[in-house]
Design goal:
Strand order of the largest sheet: 1-2-3
CATH architecture of the largest domain: Orthogonal Bundle
Shape: globular
CATH class of the largest domain: Mainly Alpha
CATH topology of the largest domain: DNA polymerase, domain 1
Order of helices and strands: EEEHHHHH
Number of strands: 3
Radius of gyration: 16 Å
Oligomer: single chain
Number of domains: 2
Number of helices: 5
Length: 139
């Protein structure tokens, strides 16, 4: 799964970096540059949309979550598992549960964050939800 990071460089340009599967224990990065954040996001979006999904990428986020939580239950406390379940059931699954992982774009995540902010959730809580989503995707 691709991970996205866009930031303003000291030389005035914007850089977006994505990383993919780890090879030999090291992440593979790809950088995209532009004059503004939106231009970089568009370049990354075009790059990611060119990829053809394989059969293993047709999994929904709900299915991926089920695999992720079952593989982590032996490592986490019961209260942590309950916290994960609450966040997944209340926030993540209603928004993304039935969607294939490859269909979820960065713009969808940004819209999700804005909606949760408008709903009155604290930024730290929203951050915890996004971190959990990233962990699920790293499976």
């Amino acid at each position: 799964m691709n991970h996205l990071n866009i930031y303003h460089r000291l030389d005035g340009r914007w850089e977006g970096r994505i990383y993919r599967e780890k090879k030999n224990g090291k992440r593979q990065y790809r950088s995209f540059y532009g004059k503004n954040k939106d231009e970089v996001a568009e370049k990354i979006s075009r790059h990611c949309s060119r990829k053809k999904p394989n059969s293993s990428s047709l999994i929904t986020l709900s299915q991926l979550y089920d695999e992720w939580i079952s593989s982590n239950l032996h490592r986490i406390k019961q209260s942590t598992a309950a916290n994960y379940k609450l966040k997944a059931d209340k926030h993540i699954m209603p928004a993304f549960g039935c969607r294939q992982v490859t269909e979820i774009a960065a713009s969808d995540i940004y819209s999700f964050i804005r909606k949760k902010q408008k709903d009155g959730l604290f930024n730290r809580y929203i951050s915890d939800i996004i971190i959990m989503m990233k962990s699920i995707g790293d499976l």
